[in-house]
Write a structure and sequence with these properties.
Blueprint: H1 2-14, H2 16-19, H3 22-38, H4 43-55, H5 62-74, H6 80-92, H7 97-110, H8 115-127, H9 131-144, H10 149-163, H11 166-179, H12 184-195, H13 199-215, H14 220-232, H15 237-257, H16 276-293, H17 298-311, H18 316-328, H19 333-346, H20 351-365, H21 368-381, H22 386-400, H23 407-423, H24 428-440, H25 445-458, H26 463-475, H27 480-493, H28 499-512, H29 517-530, H30 535-547, H31 552-565, H32 570-582, H33 587-600, H34 605-619, H35 622-635, H36 639-651, H37 656-669, H38 674-687, H39 691-704, H40 709-722, H41 729-739, H42 744-756, H43 761-776
Helix pairs in contact: 1-3, 1-4, 3-4, 4-5, 4-6, 5-6, 6-7, 7-8, 8-9, 9-10, 10-11, 10-12, 11-12, 12-13, 12-14, 13-14, 14-15, 14-16, 15-16, 16-17, 16-18, 17-18, 18-19, 18-20, 19-20, 20-21, 20-22, 21-22, 22-23, 22-24, 23-24, 24-25, 24-26, 25-26, 26-27, 27-28, 28-29, 28-30, 29-30, 30-31, ...
Length: 777
């Protein structure tokens, strides 16, 4: 009975408990040999024996297996099953994807309902970017084989991984493991599905992972996934480390025994290991993340990643993980970019890798255009990928700051944030970034505050969320006390070691507690000690040393270090250009750095505005200044730039009408900008003769910054200039005194007006006395 012989041989070879016993492996081999001798041209016998020889860990003989498979499919009566099994051999053992595709097509043509042909062809279409055709074939497989665990599991995994349809995918995967409780691959896939679900589903996941491994103790895929689950979801790093070590040892053993490794067929109930070098590389890389993040051993983590890349230098995921290590741990951005680029080239259809490279380009390199291209490619591949959508939305926020027609960008960012939060409701970072968007772009402060609270309720110690909320409280709500409390919580959550938090808090304290010079200096130093390569922190400390402590040599050294670590950071280059111009008075060098800053980011409004002012005030090149001012105001609504351009148009171009247009824009952008308010008031008074409106704007300017003596002098000069010609001058003086009763210069000026213009010496003396008392106090 040929059928009985090969069925019994297959049973022996496919049962893990028997497979572990060498005698039963030899017995299976003898049964296959006996069946082949009795029926040497039977395509099923030939192909099943080929499967056994390729897949069996103890007796792997790929050359003989291939010979048998070829004989099976060249027979005139080659069955669809033989064609399908040869296709699997070519794909999984020989890595001949093209040849496998051809065999799967022949299998499907021979029998349109053959399960191997349907599932294999579906996988081929999936890899070629045709998920619509793949889904049709997967559904045909389920319809034709409604009680087959392979069919149910394949469609369930497809819907989960590609369509993110948790409801139907969950039903199919649960049915698959019910139909065949010993199917290791389906058990592992169902465990992965559960691990990404609710807390109740995650509680089930660990059990299904253990069941998958019990059915196939050598499944590297299941062991690797269990380790990740234990580390990141179950919160058991000790168990995760033990699982990683076990899996890595198995992978090393498999690699030593057979470089091409064993691979079970779809028809097998055990899970599948693809080439162990690929799995070994992935296991080493994932283990390195645990070593770095939990065991806090970055050197060991780096060595594990080096081994992973050495084992499989074409593994795009491993290269991407090493790039992340180079960026965030080793702080070697050149090496990081090289790894990211290689990974993206090797896996151009992997949305995770493309998104990671996009994030690096945006945040580390500041190359927003290239980053946007990679984000768009990643999102085109997976339109519900929360991390990529959230990252792209943040990038769109940066592009909005450049000005122009930002409405489409804002709409797109809003949509991306919304979908990211829907897809990952437990992700505090996405919720916090969306809150930042609502606050700074939409100006919806109440909604932003609620979203920040939601983010913190999801993860009370998320450093990124705490940092964003602190900035929100400081800049949007202007609640410095609340902001400081959140900054301190962020420091505690990061164990006072996060360079970004330390640097941000130093900036905050240098503004709020400007008299605490020593404490602020120490905070900046701690930020740099935490990450000596953090260019923004180096530049911020340089500015502090320059503007507060007048330690110009130290500031220059820090600026140069910042530029060394971020040679294309437009903000740092522009700040150093201003430092060189204003402190070192080296105008030629300043122009070089301004030019480098604009080349690094041609649409950076701040740098364009600074350079325009430099060309205007220092170089006296009004033509080039005007061109750069025009570019600056087109790239962003910056109140300083708008005000400076208005002043330039008024004083150098004598274009009062256009100057007034830009003064109005500047005041609209920042209604409490004292200098712009005063400048506009002066234009109204001295160019338009509109003393009434000028008085209103002068008062707003003084109220915006009571400590700015220059603004106050402008107002007093205005009142003095109209005291003999303006009939309502006394009314203006009284209005100013009523609004600023403790302003000694105003009281003194009013006293002079009373004495010299109205001749009221008694009342004048009273105001002189009030002014004198305030000065004394």
């Amino acid at each position: 009975n040929i059928e009985g012989m090969i069925d019994f041989a297959s049973l022996l070879s496919a049962t893990p408990t028997l497979l572990a016993q060498h005698d039963d492996v030899k017995l299976a081999d003898s049964w296959f040999s006996a069946a082949l001798s009795k029926s040497p041209d039977d395509s099923r016998v030939l192909s099943m024996y080929g499967v056994f020889l390729a897949a069996n860990h103890a007796l792997t003989d790929e050359d003989k297996a291939e010979t048998l498979h070829r004989r099976a499919v060249t027979n005139a009566g080659a069955c669809a099953g033989a064609l399908g099994r040869y296709a699997e051999f070519l794909e999984m053992t020989q890595s001949d994807v093209e040849g496998a595709g051809e065999m799967f097509r022949r299998c499907h043509e021979a029998d349109a309902l053959n399960l191997l042909g349907l599932l294999g062809l579906a996988a081929m279409y999936m890899r070629s970017g045709r998920p619509d055709v793949a889904q049709t074939l997967y559904r045909q497989a389920v319809q034709a084989h409604p009680d087959d665990a392979n069919a149910q599991g394949a469609l369930g995994s497809f819907l989960f991984n590609v369509h993110h349809d948790r409801e139907e995918a969950g039903e199919l995967l649960r049915r698959a493991v019910t139909l065949d409780p010993a199917h290791a691959s389906n058990l592992g896939n169902f465990a992965l599905f559960l691990s990404e679900g609710s807390a109740a589903e995650q509680a089930e996941a660990g059990d299904y992972y253990r069941r998958a491994i019990a059915e196939d103790p050598r499944s590297l895929r299941a062991l690797g996934r269990l380790a990740v689950f234990q580390e990141r979801i179950a919160g058991d790093p000790k168990a995760a480390e033990a699982t990683y070590r076990r899996a890595i040892q198995l992978a090393r053993d498999d690699t030593a025994a057979s470089p091409a490794s064993s691979q079970h067929t779809l028809a097998s109930k055990t899970g599948a290991n693809s080439a162990p070098d690929a799995y070994l590389a992935t296991l080493l890389a994932n283990y390195s993340a645990l070593v770095a993040g939990v065991k806090l051993d970055p050197l060991r983590a780096g060595e594990l990643l080096r081994q992973a890349v050495e084992v499989d230098p074409t593994n795009a995921i491993v290269l991407s993980m090493q790039a992340d290590y180079m960026e965030h741990v080793a702080h070697d951005n050149e090496a990081a970019e090289e790894r990211y680029h290689r990974a993206a080239s090797l896996a151009p259809d992997n949305p995770d890798i493309l998104g990671a490279y996009a994030a690096f380009l945006a945040h580390t390199r500041g190359d927003l255009e290239t980053a946007e291209d990679y984000y768009c490619r990643a999102i085109e591949l997976d339109r519900r990928h929360a991390d990529n959508l959230g990252g792209y939305a943040v990038l769109l926020m940066s592009l909005c700051r450049r000005g122009g027609d930002v409405a489409p960008l804002i709409q797109r960012a809003d949509e991306c944030f919304r979908i990211a939060c829907e897809e990952a409701p437990g992700n505090a970072a996405h919720a916090a970034n969306y809150a930042v968007f609502l606050a700074n772009v939409r100006c919806e402060l109440n909604e932003a505050a609620l979203l920040f609270e939601t983010a913190l309720s999801t993860d009370v110690s998320n450093v990124e969320t705490l940092l964003n909320m602190a900035h929100f409280l400081e800049t949007c709500l202007q609640d410095d006390d609340a902001a400081e409390l959140i900054f301190q919580r962020a420091l505690a959550a990061s164990n006072d070691k996060d360079a970004r938090v330390l640097g941000s808090y130093a900036l905050f304290r240098s503004r709020v507690h400007e008299d605490s010079i020593d404490d602020n200096r120490i905070l900046y130093q701690r930020a740099i000690q935490a990450d000596p390569t953090n260019a923004p922190n180096l530049a911020a400390f340089a500015l502090y040393l320059s503007k507060v402590l007048a330690q110009y040599d130290e500031a220059d050294a820090l600026f140069r270090k910042a530029i060394q670590h971020a040679p294309r950071d437009a903000d740092i280059l522009g700040s150093y250009g201003a430092f060189v111009a204003e402190v070192q008075h080296d105008n030629d060098a300043a122009e070089v750095y301004y030019t480098r800053a604009i080349e690094a980011d041609p649409e950076n409004a701040t740098n364009l505005g600074k350079f325009a002012y430099f060309l205007h005030a220092v170089r006296g090149d009004h033509h080039m200044a005007n061109l750069h001012y025009q570019r600056a105001v087109q790239c962003g609504n910056n109140a300083d730039i708008l005000g400076n351009y208005a002043n330039f148009l008024e004083t150098e171009r004598d274009d009062h009408a256009l100057a007034e247009t830009f003064y109005k824009q500047a005041v609209a952008v920042e209604p409490r900008h004292a200098f712009n308010l005063a400048s506009y008031a002066r234009l109204l008074a001295y160019s338009h003769g509109d003393n009434e409106t000028a008085d209103i704007y002068f008062r707003r300017a003084v109220a915006a910054d009571l400590g700015d003596s220059a603004i106050l002098d402008f107002y007093i000069d205005f009142l003095y200039s109209i005291r003999e010609t303006e009939q309502r001058s006394n009314e203006y003086f009284k209005g100013a005194i009523n609004e600023f009763p403790q302003c000694a210069p105003l009281l003194q000026s009013y006293g002079e007006y009373l004495d010299e213009v109205l001749g009221d010496a008694v009342e004048a003396a009273r105001y002189f006395k009030l002014a004198s008392e305030i000065v004394t106090l």
